[in-house]
Specification:
Blueprint lengths: L1 E2 L2 E2 L3 E3 L6 E4 L10 E4 L2 H9 L6 H18 L3 H12 L6 H14 L4 H39 L7 E5 L15 H9 L4 E6 L6 H13 L3 E4 L4 H6 L5 E4 L3 E3 L4 E4 L2 H11 L3 E4 L5 E2 L5 H4 L8 H4 E5 L5 E5 L12 E4 L6 E4 L2 E3 L3 H7 L11
Length: 370
């Protein structure tokens, strides 16, 4: 996607051929900075500290991190150690395990001398596949937006509400929830996006708004609790969110607060769609609430805020009383019954086991029985 008129991906092979470069998302929207990852530990830190975030990008970064680890130690022990190190960085996003297990299956049988080269090729392939998947999500979702926009008076925009960041910064390119939005905007459809700030890390206010601003998409940042109010007053035509893990039954795990948006949408008759790349489906899980591990992040993300001060410097401030404890569950689960449809690279389906089976018949053998 575009940053000041220039096309960027979120990660790429370094010019030296021995490293990976990423956009440091912890510095956005105030500073656009790139970081070089040269070791396994660099990649693990980038994922854990959220220099990169978003399920698809986490998986792609982990694949390159495995390559960096194998460059230092391509033995069986080195492969297993790198796999374990990266897998421990974030527990909720299934793409992390998907990418690492895919690499382990490919690399395990190979002689150590060829593993690093093969790992690099696989990481590049995973990145290209992610771009194609997200483009497919955009193409599948575009007709939904076109149909809804056609029902609007000519002067009125199609109002879409998003939560967190499921844009190109969460993927290698295009994004998941934003892919149909970008395609609709580029096709000349009048679009306006309500951007949830998404506390506590403010990925909506910091990242989604920055993306949309750079791409020229009209948008407005709102506090997380404004979504229901906007829906009650007819100011939201549909909601599109992303997902970090989706069960074989269609439950969706996404950034904390997604469930509340789904409840508000259901109460107000607003369509609620989830943009779903197929690697984010966990075919081994049925009940999202009971079975998906929810990452508990540091309390300081709740108690403190970082932003640009009036004098132009970045500053971190405390917003809670000294001594007050804070809890920070990073995700919640939206039951399939609240979801209008899943937008995948293979088309749109109901959020159900039957809907997923229709689009992905080759994967149902691995899915638990109903």
């Amino acid at each position: 996607m575009n940053v000041q008129g220039k096309h960027w991906r979120t990660l790429w092979l370094g010019a030296d051929g021995e490293s990976v470069e990423i956009i440091d998302q912890t510095r956005l929207p105030h500073e656009f900075t790139t970081v070089r990852l040269a070791t396994l530990d660099d990649a693990a830190h980038a994922i854990r500290a959220m220099l990169v975030r978003g399920a698809p990008l986490i998986g792609a970064t982990a694949a390159y991190g495995l390559w960096l680890g194998l460059r230092a130690d391509a033995s069986d022990t080195g492969l297993q150690s790198a796999h374990a190190t990266l897998l421990a960085t974030r527990p909720t996003a299934i793409n992390l395990r998907w990418a690492l297990d895919r690499a382990l299956e490919l690399l395990g049988p190979l002689p150590p001398v060829t593993r690093a080269t093969s790992a690099q090729r696989l990481a590049a392939r995973i990145c290209d596949e992610d771009v194609a998947i997200n483009r497919g999500i955009g193409e599948a979702g575009l007709p939904l937006l076109q149909a809804l926009a056609a029902r609007k008076p000519a002067a009125e925009p199609l109002n879409i509400l998003t939560h967190c960041n499921a844009g190109w910064l969460a993927t290698v390119d295009w994004g998941t929830a934003t892919a149909p939005i970008y395609m609709a905007h580029d096709a000349g459809i009048k679009i306006h996006v309500w951007v949830d700030e998404t506390r506590p890390r403010n990925q909506g206010a910091s990242l989604t708004a920055w993306e949309l601003l750079n791409h020229g998409v009209p948008h407005t940042v709102v506090v997380d609790n404004a979504g229901g109010h906007l829906m009650q007053h007819g100011q939201v035509d549909l909601v599109i969110v992303g997902t970090d893990r989706t069960t074989a039954q269609g439950d969706v795990c996404n950034k904390i607060g997604t469930y509340l948006k789904a409840l508000a949408a259901h109460d107000n008759g607003v369509p609620f769609y989830v943009a779903l790349p197929s690697p984010s489906i966990d075919w081994t899980v049925r009940d999202g609430v009971r079975e998906i591990p929810i990452e508990e992040r540091a309390a300081t993300e709740v108690t403190h805020l970082t932003g640009r001060s009036n004098n132009g410097t970045l500053a971190t401030i405390r917003v809670t009383p000294e001594g007050s404890p804070a809890a920070n569950p990073a995700f919640d689960v939206t039951p399939a019954r609240l979801i209008t449809g899943l937008i995948t690279e293979r088309g749109v389906a109901p959020a159900s086991a039957a809907g997923l089976r229709r689009l992905f018949p080759e994967r149902t053998a691995a899915a638990p029985s109903a």
